[in-house]
Amino acid sequence: MKLSIDRTTLLAIMIPMVALLFVGFISYENTIQSIQHDAIDNRIDLIIQRLEHLVSDVTDAETGQRGYIITDAPSYLQPYNYAIRDIRGQLGNLDMMIANEPSSQQSLNDLYILKGLIQAKLAELNQTITLRRSHGFNAVLPIILSNRGKIVMDNIRATALDIENQQKNLLAMYANQSHGYAQNITYIIIVTTLIAAGIIGVSVFVINRGIHKLHLAIQRSLQTEVKQRTEELQIANNQLLITNERLKLHDRMQQDFINIAAHELRTPVQPILGLSQILRTKAKDDMFIDSLDTIIRNAIRLQRLTEDILDVQKIESHTLQLKKVRIDLNALISDLVADCRKQVLLNKKTESIRLLTELNFSKPIILYADRDRLARVIDNLLNNSVKFSKEGTIVTAVKQTEDQQRHEVIISVKDTGSGIDPDILPKLFSKFVTKSYHGTGLGLYICKAIVEAHGGKIWAENNVNGKGATFGFSLPIVEDIIQ
């Protein structure tokens, strides 16, 4: 549905916005005027302060002159000299400040008069000081008695006062203008705000009415669309149900095919492996022995692959069953390590690897477990260690936990090989995870399922010294007999 805003609603929105913008503009102008008036007030205050300071400097110069004339002490000339220097700077500042001020022509004229009076006063002071220094007190006395200096000083004060009064009058005028402008602005803002409030009230009513109409139209449109989408979803759902049934049938067919194929592969592999092992015991030709070793090795790989496929199918279909019997764990591990040692010695690439065990035969550990599957877990860990080790030692150890609440045994296989790639370590026991070119990535996945089916846990970690890795798993002890 295409949404649009009618003209009434648009006007109802635009008019209050224009009113608010106008109020904002007026407020902005008022702020600018206030800032300007504050700047003028500060400048006038500074002019008055500088006038007072200027008169004070002239008075200080006259005081220093009198002290020197009376005492002939040069120390009295210090305030006189300081005042002379300061007067020149004050006159320059006043000239610039008043010249930049609007409506300041009268003050500027009076300032020129004040400059002439001050120059006359300074000339009179300099004359008396020069006469006192060169001809003594009596030479200065006629000038002092003429009262000329007092008249000039009174004129200076009067002129400075006139300028000060002019600045105060100017300040009062600006204050009145600012006050009147602020009142007008306030009235304008109040009236504009009231008008805007009225328009906003009408606008709210108009917009609410438009929204109500729009809501009804949208509701009708949504109902139609929901009905249409519901029908489409129903059709899609039916199609998904049909597809799902087809997938289930395909999955069953795939599982049946894998199961049949694995069993059919396992059937010929057993006689091939058995007969090849018999022939090897009787063969004497080295080339013939190497060929038989290749057959045996690949037959074992094929046998393991078929067993892995069958086990994965059982794990994923939750049909993995355990045939638990009483097992002497130390004896089982000894046999498996011995078998692995024979395979290592037969291979020239691994004959430098030593397989060791750390077992306590004085304290047999009896487990209630599936012997074949448990042997497969240990055999898989041993073969992995051999595969990733070129030399060194592989140690298989068994120890019991000391915690009485967790009565379990821990089996570990520690090698000195290349270790576990950090990239695959977090997902090591997942399906198809491997970096070997000769593996399917199913072995550790199956080991994890077998161990967890026995109620245990399996883990792996790289060794602390940075060489090799350690695989371990725990199993609960059902019966612990010390013979």
Walkthrough of the structure:
The mean pLDDT is 80. The longest helix has 135 residues, at 148-282. Helix 8 (371-387) runs antiparallel to helix 9 (443-453). With 483 residues, the chain is α+β, with helices and mostly antiparallel strands. The two termini are 87 Å apart. The chain is built from 9 helices and 7 strands, in the order ααααααβαββαββαββ. The protein has 2 domains: 7-213; 321-476, Heat Shock Protein 90 (2-Layer Sandwich), CATH 3.30.565.10. 20% of the residues are buried. The strands form 2 sheets. A 5-stranded mixed β-sheet has the order 2-4-5-7-6. Strands 1-3 form a two-stranded antiparallel sheet.
The gist of it:
With 483 residues, the chain is of the alpha+beta class.
Work out the strand percent: 5-15%
Please summarize the sheet with the most strands.
5 strands, mixed
The topology string of helices and strands comes to HHHHHHEHEEHEEHEE
Instruction: Determine the mean pLDDT.
Output: 80
Provide the number of structural domains.
2
- Measured on Cα atoms, how large is the radius of gyration? 55 Å
Low-confidence stretches are none
Q: Quickly count the helices.
A: 9
**In total, how many beta strands?**
7
Question: Structural class of the secondary structure composition?
Answer: alpha+beta
How would you sum up the global shape? elongated
In whole angstroms, the N-to-C terminal distance is 87 Å
Arrangement of strands in the largest sheet:
2-4-5-7-6
Relative helix content:
over 70%
